[in-house]
């Protein structure tokens, strides 16, 4: 009977995580914004990490225990499963940070991105070295590595969601619509609460197995609430779409000929007039971000404008 309940407690968060992915996919398709796309991939990578590294490791440990395998082998298998899930965790949290910054029409700094993934690569390598020392040379105690692993995970979860919440508080201050400001802050507050609910049972997981199950349930199920908040927000405060005038093509063509604009520069101008950011233009035209900036600089020089608004008004 206990095994049946354990299986049910395992399947419920997996099902809830799958439902969260489904709703985040619907958000991405319905509201074609950069941050809804990043949020969807955040959910996907997080689900892969949860099912493979957490649920998979738990199932593997259960099966090996029933087969009466040596305890060290069981611990080793569990730790390896978590090791191989680290890249998915790194991608998940990066996409979450990216979705938050994109909501405020910004992007994670290139320097931050480089150091973020270099840091995770270093963690992956160091963790792997400790794993080899333990499994092949029996140099060390599994319990020490488990404690280090748990502490690192708690610190990482704390850091990501706390920084994201502070970012939301800081940049939402510029929103003029008070209900919209409060709504997005509630979204951030729910994720901060999620961080606390994740950390609490994980910190107590060494005392009783039930805390591991609670942690896993929260880890995959809690996202349904913030997704609901985001869906309500997008329904109430949809992103305004830039609509080009009917004669835009003819105006753009005359503008291009008058200022000797190249074909690629004309494509960039068209994207600017639709309200796309430099990063979105880069992704749409399949060119680098620096190339987009170079094109815009040349356009400004040729036309004598100082910003995007002046450029758009000249064509309109």
Write a structural description.
The chain has helices at 2-30, 34-66, 71-103, 110-135, 142-172, 178-203, 209-221, 224-236, 248-259, 263-273, 278-285, 289-303, 308-315. With 316 residues, the protein is mainly α. The protein has two domains: 2-236, Rhopdopsin 7-helix transmembrane proteins (Up-down Bundle), CATH 1.20.1070; 248-315, Arc Repressor Mutant, subunit A. It is elongated and about 80 Å long. It starts with a helix and ends with a helix. The mean pLDDT is 80.
Question: What's the number of helices?
Answer: 13
Q: SSE order in H/E notation?
A: HHHHHHHHHHHHH
Termini gap: 71 Å
- Uncertain parts: none
- Identify the overall geometry: elongated
Biggest β-sheet, characterized? none
Q: What is the correct CATH architecture of the largest domain?
A: Up-down Bundle
Report strand %: under 5%
Number of domains: 2
CATH fold type of the largest domain: Rhopdopsin 7-helix transmembrane proteins
Write a brief structural summary.
By secondary structure, the chain is mainly α. The chain has 13 helices and no strands. It folds into 2 domains: 2-236, Rhopdopsin 7-helix transmembrane proteins (Up-down Bundle); 248-315, Orthogonal Bundle (Arc Repressor Mutant, subunit A), CATH 1.10.10.
